[in-house]
Design a protein that fits this description.
GO terms for molecular function: nucleotide binding. Pfam families: CobW_C. The protein is α+β, with helices and mostly antiparallel strands. Helices cover about 30% and strands about 30% of the residues. A hairpin with an 8-residue loop joins strand 2 and strand 3.
Length: about 200
């Protein structure tokens, strides 16, 4: 068994790139845990859990996004055979870079926004979901909650969220969206999705 740790004190992650990083992890990676912040969700931190090929990310209340003493990203992966250098190189590509991301958004913003518009239409037409106002961010970003028993007792059912995300992802590119569970301004459970470029 071995492990590799990723730490970044200042720069948050691109949500779409981090999603692709998780999707492409070798099967030798068995578990993972840590805290991450995303450029499209400033001031928010998410706790990530990975077991085998399944992973979840939940918003951590009262924890900043790397603006203070705490790192923006702290993630540990454990596996039977780990190419630490290769994983670190791939992880570095998940980090936001102000100048590079600005150029990419100018080049790809139309694609991302078009996909986000299509995703909003799918969500608005599905009785299970309630479309929420999305925060201001570059590219495409969609936020929604689950209606009725799907979000019962103020908690998102992890299995239902995973199934819904898989269904939505199958209609777009599986590398284009990454859903996070969190709380809206009114305290309601919500799912946040960033839509990126397929080649991101």
């Amino acid at each position: 068994m071995g492990s590799v740790t990723f730490t970044e004190k200042r720069r948050p992650l691109s949500m779409a790139r981090f999603h692709q990083f998780l999707e492409d992890l070798p099967r030798d990676i068995l578990r993972g845990k840590g805290f991450v912040a995303f450029g499209c969700l400033p001031g928010q931190t998410y706790e990530v859990h990975l077991v085998g090929q399944r992973y979840e990310a939940h918003q951590v209340q009262g924890k900043g996004g790397g603006g203070g003493e705490e790192p923006a990203v702290l993630l540990v992966l454990i596996g039977t055979s780990i190419d630490a250098e290769g994983l670190r190189n791939r992880f570095q590509r998940c980090l936001c870079d102000a100048e590079a991301d600005g150029g990419n958004q100018r080049r790809e913003g139309g694609i991302a926004c078009e996909k986000a518009s299509g995703l909003r239409e799918l969500i608005a037409a599905d009785a299970r979901f309630h479309l929420l106002p999305s925060p201001q961010s570059p590219g495409g970003f969609v936020s929604f909650s689950l209606r009725g028993s799907y979000g019962r007792f103020g908690q998102l059912d992890a299995l239902l969220v995973e199934a819904a995300n898989r269904e939505l992802a199958s209609r777009l590119s599986r590398h284009s969206i990454f859903a996070l569970t969190g709380k809206g301004e009114g305290g309601e459970p919500r799912i946040c999705v960033e839509v990126g470029d397929d080649d991101d």
